[in-house]
Specification:
Elements (H helix, E strand, L loop, with lengths): L2 H33 L1 H26 L4 H40 L8
Length: 114
């Protein structure tokens, strides 16, 4: 096999690999978009963080026995739950807004015929 034939085989192999990678990228993109993977992962993360925070606050509150400890526990619970609630609200808003956007994109408004 001479050099020219070898180069031709390498170029054809690279072209076939490029076509295969492009097809794989299209399938992967469609799979991620159709299953709404990022939206669902974000909501699952928000639920997990919320559950973990509530469980921590519950256990922390159970260890408060005196009036001062209860007041301190309330302050800690407020400090823990404030950012968690904000995160949960932001992710839920993102989830709902992307659902509305997907619905409007799939169902464009129609104008009535006159």
């Amino acid at each position: 096999m001479n050099l020219r034939a070898t180069v031709r085989v390498v170029v054809e192999s690279l072209q076939a690999l490029e076509v295969l990678l492009a097809a794989t990228a299209r399938v992967a993109t469609r799979l991620i978009d159709d299953t709404q993977l990022f939206r669902r992962t974000g909501m699952a993360l928000a639920f997990y963080v919320s559950y973990s925070s509530i469980e921590f606050c519950y256990r922390y509150a159970l260890n408060a026995h005196t009036q001062e400890q209860m007041l301190g526990a309330a302050a800690v619970i407020a400090a823990v739950m404030a950012p968690v609630s904000t995160l949960q609200a932001a992710l839920f808003k993102f989830y709902v807004d992307s659902s509305i956007h997907r619905y409007k994109k799939a169902n464009p408004p129609t104008t009535p015929a006159e």
